[in-house]
């Protein structure tokens, strides 16, 4: 009778151990699958893109949030398209000049970037992408963007700051306006990427 109870107790203990080990294995597999799912396809969920021109007579800041894009962390390919028709500056007359005379958004409504992620370091929150930046019908190759990346529940928040020269994209500033608009424009981006559903 005692041997029978010991045998049952031993079987019960082994069953508990096996059940515990299976539970751990399931948790590891599930975590792995979730991590794998998170690292596949991402799309732009929200975007806040600002541009800043600091000239001797005036500082101009504009914002746009109309952006779409996709990123694949396996292939490292990133594409972002921004609808410049949504770009706004506080002064209405200046806004019209910007769209009609400089960006010519009726003919060139999209600014784009297509590139490859060359650095992705979640521990140090660093990201670098190199590719082609398109604006005003001109594409600039070997364009590098550096920024920070923060892991979010369902994706990543990427922030970056970089500068462009308007002359690189054949956007000319009349001499009368040069004191109000800088040829060098600072771009600040906050883009929230989420898993593609």
Automatic annotation (TrEMBL):
<dbReference type="InterPro" id="IPR036761">
    <property type="entry name" value="TTHA0802/YceI-like_sf"/>
</dbReference>
<dbReference type="Pfam" id="PF04264">
    <property type="entry name" value="YceI"/>
</dbReference>
<dbReference type="InterPro" id="IPR007372">
    <property type="entry name" value="Lipid/polyisoprenoid-bd_YceI"/>
</dbReference>
<feature type="domain" description="Lipid/polyisoprenoid-binding YceI-like">
    <location>
        <begin position="41"/>
        <end position="194"/>
    </location>
</feature>
<protein>
    <recommendedName>
        <fullName>Lipid/polyisoprenoid-binding YceI-like domain-containing protein</fullName>
    </recommendedName>
</protein>
């Amino acid at each position: 009778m005692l041997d029978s109870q010991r045998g049952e107790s031993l079987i019960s203990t082994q069953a508990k151990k096996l059940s515990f080990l299976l539970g751990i294995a399931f948790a590891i597999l599930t975590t792995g699958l979730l991590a794998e799912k998170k690292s596949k396809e991402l799309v732009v969920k929200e975007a806040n893109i600002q541009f800043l021109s600091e000239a001797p007579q005036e500082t101009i800041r504009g914002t746009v949030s109309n952006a779409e894009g996709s990123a694949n962390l396996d292939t490292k390919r990133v594409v972002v398209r921004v609808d410049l028709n949504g770009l706004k500056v506080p002064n209405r007359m200046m806004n019209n000049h910007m769209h009609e005379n400089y960006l010519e958004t009726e003919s060139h409504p999209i600014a784009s970037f297509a590139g490859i992620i060359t650095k992705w370091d979640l521990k140090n929150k660093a990201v670098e992408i190199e590719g082609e930046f398109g604006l005003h019908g001109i594409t600039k190759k070997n364009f590098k963007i550096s920024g920070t990346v923060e892991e979010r529940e369902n994706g990543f928040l990427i922030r970056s700051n970089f500068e462009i020269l308007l002359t690189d994209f054949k956007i000319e500033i009349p001499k009368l306006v040069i004191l109000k608009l800088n040829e060098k424009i600072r771009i600040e981006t906050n883009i929230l990427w989420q898993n593609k559903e």
